[in-house]
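Q: Joint fold for the lines below.
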Amino acid sequence: MVVSRLRPILEDKGAMAGLGVILLFCLMALLAPWIAPHDPTTQNVRDAFQGPGARYWFGTDEFGRDVFSRVIHGARPALMIGVFSVVLSVVLGMPLGMLAGFVGGRFDTAVSAVVDVMMSFPSLLLALMVVTLLGSAPSMVVLAIGISHVPVFVRLARSSTLVVRELDFVAASRSFGARTGHILRRHVMPNVIGPTIVMATLGIAGAIREEAGLSFLGLGIQPPAPSWGNLIRDGVNAILHAPTLALLPGLVLTASVLAFNIVGDSVRDMLDPHDIAAAAAKRDRAR
Amino acid sequence: MRRFLIRRLLSAIVIVWAVATIVFFSMRIIPADPAEVVLGEHASAESLAAFRRQAGLDQPLLAQYWDFISRAVVGDLGQSLVNNAEIAPQIWFVLPYTVVLAFASLGVGILIGIPIGVLAAVRRNSWIDLASRCFALLGFSFPAFYLGVALLLLFSIWLGWFPVMHSIRFGTWAEHLYKLVLPALSLGLIQAAYITRLTRSTMLEELRKDYVRTALAKGLTMRRVLFNHGLRNALVPIVTAIGLYAGSSLGGAILTETVFNRPGLGKLLVGAIAQRDYNLIQAGLIVFALVIVAVNLAIDLSYGFLDPRVKHD
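A: Joint structure:
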């Protein structure tokens, strides 16, 4: 059954390419110390501002550190923060949204009001505020980005719950005397989890972008530890000496965000019943 | 209409007040002591106490809160902790830069996004449609600040068409406009991606409706049907979404201003965070909230003009 559900994605060339790129980045993060040609933080001032070449593929920065090795190590904070912050927002947001949608009434009104206000603020601003208050340790960056994405998952879970709540099997379960918690777990959650997975995949893309943004502002991963954001920052600061310094780390960053977006989009096509016809058409064209 | 306006205004005021309150109290529960941050670890106990007295930090929390709110209402946002300068004039100075950037990028987004979106919907599954989807996907994936860096590299460093440094304290209108091009493009292209995707899907939905067939059947030109009927109906969801992006676009402005070294609310805020000037951070966040609430209010009011069926009561 799993295979038949996964078939559309296995036949979607774009999604497979996206998955391949994600896998590559995961391997890069896991094996960073073994595959990076140089140490990411060792300074070698004599080789400062070397252009890209055979010895330093992406060139070197003002301290003569190998940018390629720093990019490889930068995959670690990007993926870790991307994944963990989204897990945090799902864990906080999904139950809250389900409960608000299911219980309704004043509780729902209050939750929705807070969510609406939070949604109207740029998530970067919320993340900035959290980092300002709590500091820039990686765990705090996870917290900052995670919290700023909670409203998305609350709203999503709430709207899916509103649909399920009215269905007969929920009424039947309740008539058997099932408690709210049981109904939420057994009947509501399976229907909420699909859209949430889609949103989480796209959320990882957003979180990676946001981590890079925070680090670019100097408020995320702190140097000398490499992150794609602070590599771009170093590159911009030296843009007159070494124009390409910012270009290559940014391309890697964009590629990873793109990969998660492509996979998220195709999972959405797969799960969205309205689009099953479109997905089938897409499959036929691909053949 | 008047009742709607009053209710909407009241809720806007409540939101700004709530944000101001949350920001105020969160700035006071932080573990760091502002006096120590400003004066350094080795400051004497007397100078710390003097600083707290001068900044009003020795008052009870509620007294500080009351003082802060009652001043903020009349536009007095207090003084910078770092250099004692009045905050409100600093914000008034940089705010226009951010607002201009936000509007300019929104303009770029609309001018590119809506035509491409309409075209992609009309020519569904053509090469234009495919290109528009690739464009949207790229726009979703390019961090706006990195796009800014790429534009800076291409147009300023390699082609030399634009200056690298964007200090715009003085200058004529033309110069301001000239220096606005790259920042507005880097934010606007990203917004264009969102607007393209949304316009395409809303237009597709509209074009399937019966009134379109009727309009075509009675002999109206395709162009007329598209723009006077289809697009007009599609505009409400599009404007709603543009309102939602206005917030994130202001967020993107924080990064874009830093890339182009352009004065603005975002750059002020980032500078304040770097210096741990908590009063300035507090004021910056609240003004951000004010701007976003104002934008949302404007969007809500625009529905009545865009779609006469929307009646406010």
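Q: Anything notable?
A: The CA atoms of residues 35 and 51 of chain B lie 6 Å apart. The mean pLDDT of chain B is 83.
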